[in-house]
Amino acid sequence: MSFSVWAPGHSRVRVRVDGELHPMNEDSGGWWHAEVAGTDYSFFVDDDETPLPDPRSLRQPDGVFGPSQVYDHSAFPWTDQGWTGRALPGSVLYELHIGTFTPEGTFDSAITKLDHLVDLGVDLVEVMPVNSFDGTTGWGYDGVLWGAVHEPYGGPDGFKRFVDAAHSRGLGVVLDVVYNHMGPSGAFLDRFGPYFAGRNLWGPALNVTGPGSDEVRRYVLDNALMWFRDFHVDGLRLDAIHAIVDTRATHLLEEMAQEVDALAAGLQRPLSLIAESDLNDPRHVTPRAAGGYGLAAQWCDDLHHALHVFLTGETQGYYKDFAAPNALKTTLENAFFHAGTWSSFRDRTHGRPINKAVTPGHRFLCFLQNHDQIGNRATGDRMAASVSPGVLACGAAIMFCSPYTPMVFMGEEWAASTPWQFFASFHDPGLADAVRTGRRKEFADHGWGESEVPDPIDPRTVVNSRLDWSELDDPAHEAVLETYKMLIALRRKHPELSDPRLDSFSVDQDDRVVTLHRGAIRLICNLGKTDVPRPEGEILLSSAVSGVIPPESFVIIR
């Protein structure tokens, strides 16, 4: 068995395999190698007697502080040889967290719910990070060993079973990955080489542009390709790309897009890169031939914020700007509300306008809720906790009838009553207390009392965040689910409703009444206090039953 690790500038590196220590030999590139038989292994750098896991570990059966374990990707019995993939344009995404999607919180238990997603009409399942992180429960964004799948979920074979099962049902899989930072516990990469370059808001940032960064970039790129090639995923959602500091002429994300496109050609199926970005910069989703990075799409928070304010009336914090007259119309028609315009939350101008003549709407993900927008509320309350089912239905209708790529957060489709709260399970008491204190202070600054903020380390916070699937037996929840199903089915049946052309899309907004024009089809949502006359035409779907459109209802007419 060949063991290798990149550790430039060190005088000695040893590998302990199945309890026995062996010397390693260095080549000219700073890589150390040893041929040894065995499966469980750790590295020792210089004279440090602390065993370190492999930065490129493929399995961590005992957690991020334990030894790495040899894993053979070729041994898994895949059954998806006929899978041809799922293209992003026209698709509906569904975001879920493995640990709270089911009571068991495993890949295998999640498989039992895939038929629910098929019935809903989903095309792509977006899975929150499954890389190895400290503790048993967490959101996954504090990963430190990016190539190893979290063992409590089911490890690498468990994730492969999930992807294989999804493909057998016609569902693609998008995996959330984090390349902007390492987690605060178990991040040992800097012991080996110049992996880190300062810190950002969440932890150590990677050195992708300074001295020694060629191998660090390769570390990131190889990880991205691994998920596509060895785990058969169909897309990656790239977390907070605005926090990746890269001053090279070719940005890391452009380089990633180039290599992923090349792999897609070889695999003969579409592979998508979807960015999360706070920059409102259309270059991320502009094709490389036109000078952009060539990413397939990006999350669009402005669309969420405009919809959230319109539906809930909340205007605190970064929602303030979206309380402007016709903010929803402006954002729906242009994807970005802040497009070289003033942002009061940032106290500066922000963003850049997109070219609607050449940029299709499917490059922007639209959502009413997601893990961040729910989980980063003090109590993790969902929209259904503060608005009526009629208001939620209007929001869903706008989302599914827009030219953007819609995404549903787990449980949203039946107005789940369970919250989605922030939770972690760090073993270090000091770190756990720091997370607990920091969380409470963050929300105290926004007027929340400490008793109102759930303890992120308390196991009950995880339990409270798990979906309650028995709610589907409640007629009220079932009615919301049926509305979501009908809206998705209607989007499939009438291509006008998924038409991504932004230059032929218009919105009318008269205070609390919004009309979307989709070719010959109109969606009219009334959140006002008075009835709105219903226009003549064939009714394709309606939550109103009379000749008018009453408040908190919608009608789709052709």
Q: Would you summarize the structure shown here?
A:
With 558 residues, the chain is an alpha/beta fold. α7 packs antiparallel against α8.
Question: How would you characterize this protein structure?
Answer:
The mean pLDDT is 96. This protein has 558 residues and is an alpha/beta fold. It is globular. The strands form eight sheets. Strands 8-9-12-15-16-17-20-21 form an eight-stranded parallel barrel. Strands 22-23-24-28-26 form a five-stranded antiparallel sheet, covered by helices on one side. It has 13 helices and 28 strands. It is found in: Cytoplasm. Residues 69-466 form the Glycosyl hydrolase family 13 catalytic domain. InterPro entries: GH, GH13_cat_dom, Ig-like_fold, Ig_E-set, Trehalose_TreZ, Trehalose_TreZ_E-set_sf. Keywords: Carbohydrate metabolism, Cytoplasm, Glycosidase, Hydrolase. Its EC number is 3.2.1.141.
The gyration radius over C-alpha positions equals 24 Å
Helix content: 25-40%
The overall strand count is: 28
- End-to-end distance: 66 Å
- Give the count of helical stretches: 13
Query: Mind summarizing the main beta sheet?
Result: 8 strands, parallel, barrel
**Strand percentage, roughly?**
15-25%
Structural class: alpha/beta
Dominant shape: globular
Q: What is the residue-averaged pLDDT?
A: 96
User: Low-confidence segments, ≥5 residues, pLDDT <50?
Assistant: none
- Strand line-up across the major sheet: 8-9-12-15-16-17-20-21
